[in-house]
Each structure stands twice: as structure tokens, then as C-alpha cells.
Amino acid sequence: MSDVDHMNRLYRRQIAEIKEADELLTIDELATWIKLNPKTIRNKMSAGIFRKGIHYYSPHGLRTRFIRSAILLWLKEEEVTKQRGVTFPLPDEPDEAIRRA
Fold this sequence. Notes:
The protein is mainly alpha-helical. The chain has a single domain (14-84), classed as Multidrug-efflux Transporter Regulator, Chain: A, Domain 2. The protein contains five helices and three strands, in the order αβααββαα. Strands 1-3-2 form a three-stranded antiparallel β-sheet. A hairpin with a 7-residue loop joins strand 2 and strand 3 (65-67). The radius of gyration is 14 Å and the shape is globular.
């Protein structure tokens, strides 16, 4: 099992335990909370950095809702990977761009 698969399983397990009682955030609320532009949040959704079913979901009739605890886990993971110097390429990055990094 790859590190990414393991991380996804861990996320899903942790999210399932706290999803019902967790605070949900709109894109604008999330952007304000983590000090990013709402367009940046949407770009991260499109790029697969924020994953549907893990970091957010779209209930029928409502706009996208982010799961606060999933975003906290993502922020912690980002901090750890930066400290270790580990980077994970985005799925659509060409191999040559990865080698240059």
C-alpha cells in the first residue's frame, strides 16, 4: 500500500468518527479561517488537494461544506511534510517537472 493510500484510509477512518458532530464550513468561511482566497480553495478542490468525501462534501440542495477536522488534519500534514522536506506531486504534474524540484 502506498503512503498516499495509507493516508487516505487514515483520513476516512478519522473523518467517519467525527463527521456528524463536526463543524461544517462554506468555502468563504474556510477561506477566512485559513487565510486564503476563496478562488484558491476552489483551485485546490479542482487539483484534488481537497478531496470530496474526505475534506468536503456537497449535500443535495446545498453548496459545498468543508469538514473542519479534515482541514485541520490536512494543515498538520502539510506542516509535517514541509518539515521533512517530503513533497507529493499533483496527479496531473508532468514527470519532468517533478525531477526539476
